[in-house]
Write a structure and sequence with these properties.
By secondary structure, the chain is mainly α. The protein is built from 16 helices and three strands.
Amino acid sequence: MNYIDGVLHIESFLAVTLGIIVLFVGRRLTQASYWLREFSIPEPVSGGILISITFAILHYATNIDVQFELAARDLLLVYFFTTIGINASLTDLFKGGKPLIILLSITIGYMLIQNITGIGIATLLDQPAAFGLLSGTVSLIGGHGTAIAWAPKIGEAFDLDTAMEIGIASATFGLILASIMGGPIAKYLINKHNLTPSKDEEMDIGTKQSEPQPKINAYDFLDAVLAIHICIILGAILNKAVASAGLELPLFVTCLFAGILISNLVPASYPRLTGTRWPSRKPAVALIADIALGAFLAMSLMSMQLWALIDLAGPIFVILGAQFIVAVCIAIFVIFPLMGKTYDAAVVCAGFGGISLGSTPTAMANMSAVAQKYGNSHQAFIIVPLVCAFFIDLANALIIPYFIGFIS
């Protein structure tokens, strides 16, 4: 940690430590708040937003900027998605084929609506159409990474000097909205239709609130860590292979696929030092997934520089308010009925809340919070990451240039 010219720079190791502390704070807040528990607000969200607000107050009181080195955060995301792959079975994947196609089709259609909404509201506010596009799939479904990648190109094409600031602000405020909308959507659907899980399934992430913590010994933990690292090694090899073929994918995507491959092709003959089988759907894997996802999201939210975004808040809040309403309507009135009005569909809708305005980790955190309260849905934890961690990025890469041409 060092302080230079009004900037407090927090290095990677300390940033991870603070992320863990923020996760603890979020869990304590959730335990103490009936509202947070009742509406399944993810624990890292409550802690992360609180700390980011605290840093904003510190900035206004002292004029100090707090900046985090977040390289280690991305490794946590790799760990998390590797556990999702380890827990996936081919049987579940085949069962999820039709729901996956339905969710993907609706989401791609929604992406078009999201851009039209952003451009339309921006025009009504006498803002450039490019402002609305930046507050559409560029920053919302695309997230911070896509916003950073496309903002310079859009800014140059439309002579918009604040393109990067608009993209980052939209992605940041969208992340907050996405983090708090999934749980209430699922609660509404579950209560209205009196839904329950079709069967009692082992948790993909964490443990149910109503159940005691599982007993895990050192061998269970080491078994899970070893399996995760084997999948990450294969995932890294796959990542280089697809990159050499001209397709750039995030490392966590290829690690997800590596986990699926190994879990379904190797377990029967996998030599185990502990004498146990491949740890698919074991409590140790679920708890590692819970901690990795929680720490990642806590670090993402605590590092938001809210003070840098406040000047753009007015028009962005209006656009995001409209985007929020559209996303909720799509989830409740389109996705839920088309996916069969089941408990699985309700959990998917919680995930869609994270996809629509936030990011893949937000979608998973929303579903995790719902699953820990009401029960697990393997189907949701398979189809949502496949849609939002792979297919959507490909679709967005085609949709964004189309809309740039449309508003030119």
